[in-house]
Write a structure and sequence with these properties.
The protein is of the alpha/beta class. The protein is built from 11 helices and 14 strands. Bound molecules: 2-acetamido-2-deoxy-beta-D-glucopyranose. Its EC number is 3.4.19.9. Belongs to the peptidase C26 family.
């Protein structure tokens, strides 16, 4: 019967293959590999690009409060980092050092010397010590780039708003928008050059979908219109507008900006939420939405690998976020699933 013949040939083929595996020393089954032979020979793995750093660290600035109106901690001086920002960085191949906003200057400065990039999170604090800390760190980031390092900054939501205030030197420049807890499309500015920006390595079909499907998460009361942004000479010379979005009342606000001269990107939207937050309805969790989170994270860490900073390994270990444990916060209704809580320092 033809079927039997085929089966016999198949058995012979398998037998020959097993024989060749046994007699051919270059092909090793996984169980034969250990001890005497290295897992991979150096010759087969070319040296990685020596100008890139493959152990990058991102500093994330903590925000005042416990994220849940005191339901997790009432202690004065408490601050938090939503774990979604930490996972976002980790998912792209970097580790995190928390920059606790009310630590002494000297300690914050020491931590900045241990990182290869910084992330400012969302939140609500627009004044006081938090604002001053953001302003000081931003200044240092620019100085570090001016001194020859490639030292990236991501600023998300509140981070975007604070940079807008700081760069324009106008604390009243923000306008009110209705964009709380909603997914939106992203409209790319016509003729915007995405080369060298966060969007450069997005697949073209994903970029197209972002302009027609609600794939990015918004959660903000404030923002800035393109007209006001462009009319401010300081803002428009520092940043190029890459995208805009519309709020519930069809009012247009600036949603993504990229610095013309520094590796600084600011998002009015929340790239970290699609993959890592579940507490608020409306967060897109489709495969396309998850791809967006991943591509945005990849760009930050890719930029951080270009940093020339090579921190002392032991000091890094002493300061990593792994020295803290996240708290499950979803049940407290603050909108985050997990948060890192930092007591007064
Ligand atoms: C914080 O204070 C509020 C109001 O007094 C109280 O309801 C809440 O239980 C306190 N939170 C903690 C974690 O103790």
């Amino acid at each position: 019967m033809p079927n039997d013949a085929v089966f016999t040939l198949f058995l012979i083929a398998i037998f020959n293959f097993l024989l060749s595996v046994q007699s051919h020393p270059a092909i090793l089954l996984p169980s034969q590999r250990h001890r005497n032979s290295p897992v991979s020979s150096p010759a087969s793995c070319p040296a990685p690009n020596p100008s890139l750093y493959y152990r990058p660290i991102i500093g994330i600035l903590s925000h005042p409060g416990d994220s849940a109106s005191g339901r997790i901690s009432n202690a004065t001086g408490t601050s938090y980092i939503a774990a979604s920002y930490v996972k976002f960085v980790e998912a792209a191949g970097a580790r995190v050092i928390p920059l606790i906003y009310n630590e002494p200057h000297s300690k914050l400065q020491k931590k900045l010397d241990l990182v290869n990039g910084v992330l400012f999170t969302g939140g609500s604090a627009k004044s006081g010590l938090y604002f001053e800390t953001v302003r000081r760190i931003f200044k240092k980031i620019l100085e570090r780039n001016d001194a020859g390092d490639h030292f990236p900054l991501y600023a998300t939501c509140l981070g975007f708003e604070l940079l807008t205030m700081i760069i324009s030197k106008d604390n009243n420049i923000l306008e009110e928008f209705s964009a709380l807890n909603q997914a939106s499309t992203l409209q790319f500015v016509e003729n915007a050059n995405i080369e060298g920006t966060v969007f450069q390595r997005f697949p073209p079909d994903l970029l197209k979908k972002m302009s027609t499907e609600c794939l990015v998460m918004q959660n903000h009361r404030y923002g800035i219109s393109p007209g006001k942004f462009l009319a401010n000479e300081k803002l428009s010379s520092f940043f190029e507008i890459l995208s805009t979005c519309k709020d519930e009342d069809d009012k247009v606000y600036v949603s993504t900006v990229y610095s013309r001269n520094y590796p600084v990107t600011a998002f009015q939207w929340h790239p970290e939420k699609n993959t890592f937050e579940w507490g608020v309805p409306g967060i897109p969790h489709t495969e396309d939405a998850i791809q967006i989170t991943q591509h945005v994270a990849n760009f930050l860490v890719g930029e951080a690998r270009k940093s020339i900073n090579r921190p002392v390994a032991q000091e890094v270990l002493d300061n990593l976020i792994y020295n803290y444990s996240p708290t499950y916060a979803g049940k407290y209704g603050g909108g985050f699933d997990e948060v890192y809580i930092f007591a007064q320092v």
